[in-house]
Amino acid sequence: MKPVAIFRFSADDGPGYFASFLDTHAIPWKLFCLDEGDAIPEDLQAFSGLVLMGGAMSANDPLPWIPAVLERIRQARQANLPCLGHCLGGQLMSKALGGVVTVNPVKEIGWQPVFFDDNGMAREWLGELAAQANLGVVFQWHGEAFSLPPGSTRILGGDACGNQAFVIGNSLGMQCHTEMTPEMIEQWCGDWAAEQADPSLPSIQTPEQIRLGMQANLARMRRLSERLYSRWLAGLDRDG
Fold it and tell me: pTM, whole model, 2 decimals?
């Protein structure tokens, strides 16, 4: 089977739990560390899927690698190659496919609730979880948000940031961070002060609040992660 290509844009925002999930399912993968100067592959035919991680930069920043990444997303979509975006990755997917990325009215940091949209695509991707009134919480750390690109369907929404996940074909773009591990969360909490966020807002949690109940929140989010990742894997070409 061809490996899954994973684009990393920041050293502290790697594939985390997603890489463990691929390993558990015996799916090969290759990490491209753009933050360390790795070259973006010219030809995606060598891969079974394309995954984009998060990062502190904006999809609208004039960074030299952003146009190439946007073009690879469009190439993948045209070739029916599954894409999966986390936070910045989801924003890049939206922008590449005709959406826009703008500043969200408020930042989201920490554990925040999400809800599913009652449509056929959401039920397909969420499976038995769609029958639950409360999907639980996901991990958030962002100040910008994406619009839904033409032809996509929203499957997850939120109160502080409306668009949390969209599906287009066999691809999934997310605003939330379903890939988090305890180690990643601890590292990010160390950078909390740099966000200059207002902890009086309901969309902002302090490091103490984030750590409180982290094990239980991660366990709940894992159920959502595993369901979404499993559905995404179903779109991979395992014969290639």
Answer: 0.97
